[in-house]
Amino acid sequence: MLKKIFFHPFVFFPIAAMVVLWPISTCFFTVKNDALTYYYPVRALISDALNNGELPLWSPFINFGYPIHADMQSGAWSPVVWLFGFLTKFSLAGFHAELLFYFSLAGIGFYYLCRHYAYSATAAIIFGMAYQFSGFMIDSVQFYACISSACWLPFVFLFYKKMVGEGK
Predict the structure, then answer these.
(1) Cα 122 from chain centre
(2) d(Cα 146, Cα 84) in Å, to the nearest integer?
(3) What proportion of the chain, given as a percentage, has pLDDT over 90?
């Protein structure tokens, strides 16, 4: 029973993300470069706007005024960013939790894609971890827009295959 619970994808992949990325999950280290200098401040502005009951449309702090809603990388219209903005008010720990969420979702999506193609559960977990911690995912940590896109990609393929093949 415990083995069945532990190896459920919604339990296994988040734990794997927290273990492999332990410096980020424990806030021992933080993300760097673009993630810290661009994505974090913009997400903090989005969170502040949402917690003040406003839409995240404009920032007066960037370049004498900047339309946050028009920047595709800002995440101003992402439900995940809104959820983490409301729950954590985008502290640095919340920013790291968003990254771990994306890594976990990437593994879960690839697991279900492999299961759809009739791979065994063990093979699907191995392939899910291989995608979750692939070179692209680990190397692109500083680019949240790329990580968030890559985490949804297995789901896009899975649902496209189901739509074309099964008409659902």
Answers:
(1) 24
(2) 18
(3) 49
- Using CA of residue 157, residue 100, residue 48, residue 75, what is the dihedral sign? negative
> pLDDT by residue (tens digit) across 33-79?
888 888 898 889 999 999 999 998 988 887 888 898 888 888 889 99
State in Å, rounded, how far the first CA of the chain is from the last one.
Answer: 32
Residue whose entry in the numeric block shows the structure tokens 């913009």: 42
Give whole-number Cα distances, 82 to 19, 78, 128, in Å: 26, 6, 27
Q: How far apart are CA 137 and CA 69, in angstroms?
A: 26
Task: Name which of 75, 87, 45 is nearest 151 in CA terms.
Answer: 75
Q: Are 110 and 89 contacting, i.e. CB atoms less than 8 angstroms apart?
A: no
pTM recorded for the entire structure: 0.90
What count of other Cβ atoms lies within 10 Å of the Cβ of residue 85?
A: 24
